[in-house]
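hey so u asked for the seq, here:
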Amino acid sequence: MAFEDEDSAGAGPGEEKDRRSLFRKRAQLIVTGAQDQERPITYLVDSLREAMGLPRIWGTQANLDDDSRIKRVQHALALATRI
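ran it, structure tokens below
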């Protein structure tokens, strides 16, 4: 099931692929600090889940470089929810 919003309604296959690529690059930037640092999608999803305080469901483990970044994102999200 694909998520559609007003921006993607009626988007062609090429536009949808570009959109997925953009989301992946954003996830890579948040998790690894660089949008071109390739990581498996399961690793990215698990890392974003951990940043939100949810358990990792794909069995991946954060590497040392990414772990500190994930913790900082988790802290920033915690601060944002207090406002």
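The chain has a mean pLDDT of 88. The two ends are 33 Å apart (CA to CA).
lmk if thats what u needed
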